[in-house]
Amino acid sequence: MANTAQARKRARQAVKQNAHNSAQRSAFRTAVKAVRKAIAAGDKDVAAKTFLASVSTIDSIADKKIIHKNKAARHKSRLAAALKALA
To answer: What's a Pfam family in this record (predicted)?
Structure first.
């Protein structure tokens, strides 16, 4: 348990920030799953549009350092390769 006012405040902030970061990570996973689902369905137009939207989400989360920039690049690369293989 935090003993000082400063430590109590930091504990409160940590809880709030953890909830925000968890929501951001969830949005990242949802975006990746949406592209995978569109690719599995075989609809290239929908998959391409979903891919562009997910790239924006992935980049914004990486810019905020919620996920590492290399992880973001890896996911974008693999999704792009899967999209290209669909053609």
So the answer is: Ribosomal_S20p
